[in-house]
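It is worth pausing here to work through a concrete case rather than discussing structure prediction in the abstract. The textbook approach is simple: state the sequence, then state the predicted structure, then interpret. We follow exactly that order.
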Amino acid sequence: MRIIHSLTCLILTFISFTPCDAKQTQTILNTLSIDHFLDKIYEWGNGAQGFQEAQIHMSGPIVVAGVLCFIASSISSAGGIGGGGLFIPILTIVAGLDLKTASSLSAFMVTGGSIANVMCNLCATSPKFGGRLLVDYDIALLSEPCMLLGVSVGVICNLVFPEWLITMLFAIFLTWSTSKTCNNGVLFWRIESEERRKSDGFEGLESGLLENGSSENREGEEKDAVKSIEEQVVVNEENIRVRIPWFKLLVLLLVWFSFFSLYLLRGNKYGQSIIPMEPCGVGYWIISSAQIPLAVIFTAWIVFRKESHQDQNLMQEGSCLSSNGPSNKLIFPMMALLAGILGGVFGIGGGMLISPLLLHVGIAPEVTAATCSFMVFFSSTMSALQYLLLDMDHIETALILAVICFVASLIGLLVVQRAIQSYGRPSLIVFSVSVVMTLSIVLMTSFGVIRTWKDYISGRYMGFKLPC
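Step two, the predicted structure:
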């Protein structure tokens, strides 16, 4: 608490002593006023500013927003999720940016954080899983095509659904998901505590036997201990040789490039595209529909190839799911499709939604965090490059914020990994995901209720809308 208090005082001091104190202080007070706050929430919800160009200048609110985004990125990186559900509200409400600018900056910020995660986890292994890579490339392969398809479907649903329905769905689903995540965290914590108690009890029993036990029992236990140690040494030596599945990486890049090409050809609903195309015209919807067979073809090919090779690496830790049966083969694409649709509807990244689902089906926290961050890397880079190629503004600011989130993610990863090594508590990853999801529920649900109320009292149409 002292650190947070000191940091707050430092920020306020910096804001107070910047040049042009009177004008700057008045701007800050106006930005932080209740009316301005509610107006920004309303604009954030319905995109009222559209393509209005926002001028970003170094100011007190921008500094505060940068500090808050730094903290949000460090917490989000520990759970392997992007953090877009926190970045966009912070940039829109605190920094006073319009929705279009905040969304483009958020895409670069998530990309910066995901790059740090991939750098740390790409070749990371764990003796706990027999020396396998923490990133489960099979889950990523099965999930990525359907997640990208789901995001596109969710974005269309976001345009059609009324604000009150989106807020209600968000509150219901994310509350349920957060509750499940917290329960999983408590369960993992109890399992870790039980393992530590057993380990401590075994060490005490072993020392007692060495002091008071018979020599024959001691010799037998020593032989077993030496044998187990030798086996562990063999495993550790094999773990040193890290084998990156290059073929799976190439397939993921092919999936990424295929969807990215469709996105660029289609453009957005405002007509921004690399080729002349009528916004929401026939060509727009034909290209959008082409994502469905593309996702089905990729997913079917990956599933059947996996079946023919009898790959047993789908689950890196013992799970209730087996590799047999169509329902088990398709569970990850179905979860990814659901996460993508909900992420597109709610305007947040799919990583925040697929992470609880992976934990719920029994994937270990370390594997979940590494795999989700790997998947977020592909989706976030796609969004960032789309904004870049479609002539976005404030590229320098976007790169600066991306670097800030890169550093924050590295710090968050190092702190959590050090804590896991020191205390043997991988459940810390689950709790970090719970923190981010809880903050997202509070922020986005509260803002959704405010926007819905303002629509109601202003007489604004609150029914279903056309996508264009």
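Step three, interpretation. The mean pLDDT is 75. The CA atoms of residues 125 and 132 lie 5 Å apart.
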